[in-house]
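Good day; I would like, with your permission, to put a structural problem before you. A protein sequence and the structure tokens that stand for its backbone fold form the material at issue. The record follows directly beneath this note:
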Amino acid sequence: MVQSIIKKVFQCDKDKLWNIITDNTNYTWRTDLSKIEIVDDTHFIEYAKNNYPTYFTITQKEKLHIYAFDIENTNIKGKWIGKFRKLDNGCIEIEFTEAIETSHFIMKLLAKPYLKSMQKRYIKDLERVLSRKKS
């Protein structure tokens, strides 16, 4: 299993941060997606810009504490866990852990750098939407 963790501290309203991350109906801030299809309360499908689908099953969702789901597509299978922690200075620290397995030899070699780049892109998109929402 390949794992990647990213942490980031945000100085913003904690509810706003939670809502942006967990609201699958509002995905246009994500530069990596063409759409999200909501199947039901615990299942959704993200489509990459090339319309490649990834299937998600929400396994935990405790407001401002944890958001977790199982992930699966034709290349990978794994888990994503997002933890939220309020710091003493009023900021919010997020920690996103993604762990995947793949049976493809090439994907095994590329999985760690791929996860890191996807996490960095997500954080950059998140920073951009939060800065826009301050105005």
